[in-house]
From TrEMBL:
Organism per entry: Neptuniibacter caesariensis
InterPro entries: CR006_AAA (IPR026866), P-loop_NTPase (IPR027417)
Protein name: Protein CR006 P-loop domain-containing protein
Protein CR006 P-loop domain mapped to chain residues: 9-720
Species classification: Bacteria, Pseudomonadati, Pseudomonadota, Gammaproteobacteria, Oceanospirillales
Coiled coil, from the record: 94-128, 370-401, 428-455
Keywords on record: Coiled coil
SUPFAM superfamilies reported in the protein's UniProt record: P-loop containing nucleoside triphosphate hydrolases
UniProt-listed Pfam families: AAA_13
UniProt key word ATP-binding: no
Length: 735
């Protein structure tokens, strides 16, 4: 059975289209001409046609049936050439053969119903699997969004959709053998490799400070440097304790001058000069020279170091790709510069006052720290350059490490979902295997039915039935006869023997093609398809028909509806499309009710701005009342055959008196005063209740014109005697 139909991009259906879902065994679709009914019937009949490439049909258990559609194309196809293909039915089978076929069909039906149940179970399991897949897909995608800022470039190629990312992550969880790295390391590598393709970096110049420590630890800085002690003036200088002062004063002695630079008296003679020179001898001067040379060497060594460090600081502070911890580096550089300046001041003091001992601060710790920073930076630079030299390989290693990191973070979810999906898949495969086996059994049973049908089918019963119905409904001027030029084909022939194909009225063609369709619905054009299950589509079968024939067609369709609901024929689902309100009401009036049931649904097609739309009504019949149409049948009965008059009177009396007036048959009869009138009323009611529930199928039908006139007069008096003549006159247009 068809569960839903979606139609779009064809005829009056736009790209959004319409969907008819929750379809039932019986489906009434009402709509005005041109609103898209025939498009639906054409699509259902030939769903593979290129016009319907964007349309879709959902079958129960994905098991399609053959579709037989009655519409204008059906009439043209089967009656356009003047010959009609014979319809095979089970008309000549023995009772034993029919029982065997019925038994096989029952078994086939049971297998199909079991498969539908299995398919329902399969669908539920597949829904669970899909829900689990969607849930874990969302979890995987949430993980990606968490690290999107860090790893988007590395994951590019697998993030086009949630599903592709999930699948990649699941694959990596099974195959990736990389070590799990921490997030900081991965971020750094990702920034180096993927922000933009990196280029090689130059190593930082390393410093050498082996000469600094001996200079800063030189014993000369703490040595007391004074003149000779065995000179006469030595005791005096020692007593005053100002050897450095005396030494500095020598620089102020003017040649041949006797003025003392210290007291400004004429106390300096040649002997005093000689003693000073002897006190501050070559040894003293050598020591002073050593001090000056050591200072200069210290300055020279440090000038190279500080120059190199300041150059590194200057360049790396503006280098966005620096690997140097620049803040720590500059802090150590400031400390080194400070120590150097302080030590230089101490040495200068020592040179000016050789007799004083000074102790220099050590800069070795700071120099060692700054050298370590340079070494660490160069290691990072070398690693970076290795990445550059092996860029493609390093990028792949990075990506692998990132996938491993992500898979590890979601490992619990992945493992749990994998186990759950595995269990569901095992169940699905088991159910599918069961379904496939039943499908094979169904195929085998269908082949058995085909063989049985070949032995018992014939085209003649269908021809006989069509001719019987034509006679029964008053079409006696033509019949179906064998076509002389082709076996198992027939033509429409008049009583005189001439073929009537070209001379039939449109209404006659419509009626006879509908009868042919009814027989085809019960059989098939070949022997193999006689017992095949099918879906029937009936599109406006009452075009150009008189109202009495319309009632006949409605009655036939009612039988088809009943058989479809009861599963007594080959039809498993029925679609009825019409623009005729009265036909819709007649065909949908079942078991004394106009609304549907659990097996019946109603739709209305509408077209606005040349675009078709559909409106579902479920079990509620949207064609609310045919009461006025019933009265129209009473007024126009003389222009029709009168065959619907009985049913029309019953429907009016039921609606107006029994339902609205709460009166039964006896109540109505008692409203008449004379015995004769009561008898006429009783006979009318008996005639109504007898005739309105049947369609005459005798070979000859007597037109009820005489009795109709008599009883219509009584029908009018029923309204007069019940005080409702005003309603009668209003409905008949007499007021």
């Amino acid at each position: 059975m068809i569960e839903s139909i979606s139609i779009s991009n064809v005829a009056s259906y736009d790209a959004a289209g319409v969907t008819l879902d929750d379809l039932k065994k019986i489906n009434f679709i009402y709509g005005a001409n041109g609103c898209g009914k025939t498009t639906i019937s054409r699509y259902l009949y030939d769903q593979s046609h290129s016009d319907f490439s964007t349309c879709h049909t959902q079958w129960t258990a994905n098991t399609p049936y053959s579709v037989l559609s009655y519409n204008k194309e059906f009439r043209e196809k089967n009656f356009g050439s003047g010959k009609i293909a014979g319809v095979f039915t089970l008309g000549q089978a023995t009772q034993e053969e029919l029982d065997l076929i019925a038994q096989k069909k029952a078994a086939l039906k049971e297998l199909k119903e079991q498969n539908i149940q299995k398919f329902t179970t399969l669908s539920k399991q597949e829904e669970k699997l899909e829900a689990e897949q969607n849930q874990v897909t969302d979890s995987c995608w949430a993980l990606y969004k968490k690290y999107e800022k860090d790893f988007k470039e590395a994951l590019r190629g697998s993030i086009s959709s949630k599903v592709s990312f999930k699948q990649k992550l699941f694959d990596e969880s099974q195959t990736n053998t990389s070590d799990v790295e921490d997030i900081t390391s991965l971020r750094d590598r990702s920034n180096s490799l993927l922000a933009e393709r990196p280029s090689r970096l130059s190593l930082l110049s390393q410093i050498s400070f082996e000469a600094i420590e001996p200079l800063e630890q030189n014993e000369l800085w703490q040595k007391v440097i004074v003149g000779k002690s065995d000179v006469m003036i030595a005791d005096l200088i020692s007593k005053i304790g100002h050897s450095d002062w005396v030494s500095q004063g020598r620089d102020y002695l003017v040649d041949e001058s006797h003025t003392c630079p210290f007291c400004q008296h004429e106390t300096i003679d040649h002997d005093f000069r000689a003693q000073l020179e002897e006190y501050f001898d070559d040894s003293f001067e050598t020591e002073k020279t050593n001090l000056s040379e050591s200072l200069q060497k210290y300055k020279d060594e440090y000038a190279l170091i500080i120059s190199k460090l300041e150059q590194i600081s200057s360049s790396e502070s503006v280098n966005s790709d620096t690997k140097l911890e620049i803040e720590a580096f500059q802090a150590h550089l400031r400390a080194i510069t400070s120590i150097y300046a302080k030590n230089c001041a101490l040495i200068d003091l020592k040179i000016s006052k050789p007799s004083q001992a000074v102790e220099l601060d050590s800069s070795i710790d700071e120099l060692t720290s700054i050298k370590k920073l340079i070494t660490e930076a160069n290691e990072l630079i070398q690693n970076h350059n290795d990445l550059v030299d092996n860029y493609a390989e390093e990028v792949e290693r990075l990506k692998s490490s990132i996938w491993k990191f992500l898979a590890d973070e979601l490992s619990t979810v992945i493992e749990g979902s994998t186990n759950k999906q595995s269990g569901l898949l095992t169940g699905i495969q088991s159910i599918q295997a069961d379904i496939d086996q039943r499908k094979q059994n169904i195929t085998d049973l269908e082949q058995e039915l085909i063989l049985l049908n070949r032995n018992v089918t014939s085209v003649q019963p269908a021809v006989d039935e069509i001719n019987r119905l034509l006679r029964a409904y008053g079409f006696t001027s033509f019949k179906i006869s064998p076509y002389p030029e082709e076996e198992n084909h027939y033509a429409i022939q008049r009583e005189c023997g001439s073929f009537a194909h070209e001379t039939l009225s449109e209404g006659e063609v419509t009626f006879i093609t509908f009868l042919y369709f009814v027989q085809l619905a019960k059989g098939a054009l070949d022997q193999e398809g006689v017992t095949e299950d099918r879906v029937l589509v009936i599109d406006d079968p009452i075009s150009s028909l008189d109202s009495n024939v319309l009632f006949i067609v409605s009655s036939i369709i009612k039988d088809m509806v009943r058989e479809t609901k009861e599963d007594t024929g080959n039809c498993r689902q029925l679609f009825i499309l019409t623009h005729n309100v009265y036909f819709h009401k007649e065909a949908s009036f079942q078991n004394g009710r106009s609304n549907g049931d659990a097996d019946t649904h109603f739709w209305i097609l509408r077209k606005s701005a040349d675009i078709s739309s559909v409106h579902p009504y479920g079990q509620k019949n949207p064609i609310e009342s045919s009461y006025e149409l019933l009265w129209r049948e009473i007024k126009d009965w003389e222009r029709n055959s009168g065959i619907t008059l009985q049913n029309t009177m019953r429907r009016i009396i039921e609606n107006y008196f029994k339902i609205l007036g709460k009166l039964g048959d006896d109540d109505l009869i008692e409203k008449f005063t004379t015995f004769e009138e009561k008898q006429v009323c009783r006979s009318l009611l008996c005639w109504i209740n007898d005739g309105s529930h049947t369609i005459p199928d005798d070979l000859f039908v007597q037109a009820p014109d005489d009795s109709a006139e008599q009883y219509q007069a009584v029908f009018k008096k029923i309204f007069e005697h019940t005080g409702n003549s005003g309603h009668y006159e209003m409905m008949m247009g007499e007021s």
